[in-house]
Amino acid sequence: MILIGMFDSPFVRRVAVSMKLLGLSFEHYNWSVGKDFDRIRQYNPVGRVPALVLDDGEALIESAAILDYLDELAGDELAGPGRALLPRAGAERRDALRIMALTSGAAEKGVAQLFEYVFRPEDKRHEPWIARCRTQMQGALAELERICQARGPGKWLVADRLTQADITVTCIFTYLTDALALTPERAPYPAIRALAARCEALPEFQATRLAFVAPIPAK
């Protein structure tokens, strides 16, 4: 399999981390949505990453769809039975999906802020819109902090093992911290930070860590 996209994308990274945790081998095409846009569009007409090219040439797009496919593999001999990273059913699955939705929402609003500063001329930026996105991002992070605190120190988010909820929170929180300069003073979230630090210490996370040069400060 071939994974397309750079690891500074939290969505590419969560796929890569998941594949490593599941013991699935893959080739990595470190393509940028900027300079490699046309090459990426050969596999995803929208020109977005991640894309996962299967051994038969089929290309899967969007990280949620890719992760769903990887969990299918987790039930067969490639990854070993019962190793799916998302709980199969019940309250744990619902909790994991809610956490992942909150985290993806935070990422979406963080990216919106980033793009305002990176791609719009200063006189074209709409500060009320940026402030609204910041409020939405902070709202999602505050709820995630509450969930992490409720689970308690040293606990995984929805089960007694690392799941896709922990992977997604870590990859996206690390991205937001880097891209928006979310220092502990500006954005404390101690329980999220503790979970992220615990995950980032694992070899599967370290192997996919790509520092993002923060272009804007958080307010």
Structure notes:
This protein has eight helices and four strands, in the order E-H-E-H-E-E-H-H-H-H-H-H. The protein is mainly alpha-helical and 219 residues long. It folds into two domains: 2-73, Glutaredoxin; 90-206, Up-down Bundle (Glutathione S-transferase Yfyf (Class Pi), Chain A, domain 2). It has a four-stranded mixed β-sheet, covered by helices on one side. Helix 1 (10-21) links the parallel strand 1 and strand 2 (27-29). Helix 4 packs parallel to helix 6 (164-179). The protein is globular.
Brief digest:
52% of the residues lie in helices and 5% in strands.
Can you name the CATH architecture of the largest domain? Up-down Bundle
Shape: globular
Name of the CATH class of the largest domain: Mainly Alpha
Strand composition percent: 5-15%
Determine the structural class based on helices, strands and strand pairing: mainly alpha
Termini separation? 41 Å
List keywords for this structure.
single chain; Glutathione S-transferase Yfyf (Class Pi), Chain A, domain 2; 4-stranded mixed sheet; Glutaredoxin; 52% helix; 4 strands; mainly alpha
